[in-house]
Amino acid sequence: MIDLPPMTPPAKRSVTIDGHRTSVSLEDAFWRGIADAARARGMTRAELIGRIDHARPPEVGLATALRLFVIAELQR
Predict the structure, then answer these.
(1) From residue 13, how far is each of 27, 45, 48, 60 by CA, in Å?
(2) Organism's domain of life (predicted)?
């Protein structure tokens, strides 16, 4: 038996990056991870998402970049 954390389907949220609205679908655990990382850096969630968006390679989708960012944060 494996002990799984609470699971939720992805939740779509809107965010503004460089004045443009976009929607991103992530599971609650990833939204919490983004919020925690933003708070630790003294920025808003939208600011952090914008920075991740600018740093990601063009062939990697924003949702994937956000998930990988949260995993990297947890591994530090």
Answers:
(1) 11, 11, 15, 19
(2) Bacteria
The pLDDT of 41-62, averaged and rounded, is: 96
Report the domain count for the chain.
Answer: 1
SS3 label, residue 42: coil
Residue 60 lies in a domain: yes
Answer yes or no: is 16 within a domain: yes
Tell me how far apart the alpha carbons of residues 66 and 24 are, in angstroms, rounded to a whole number: 9
Residue 6 domain-assigned (yes or no): no
> Could you tell me the CA-to-CA distances from 49 to 5, 35, 39 in Å, in that order?
24, 10, 12
Q: Which domain holds residue 35?
A: 11-75
Give the global pTM.
0.90
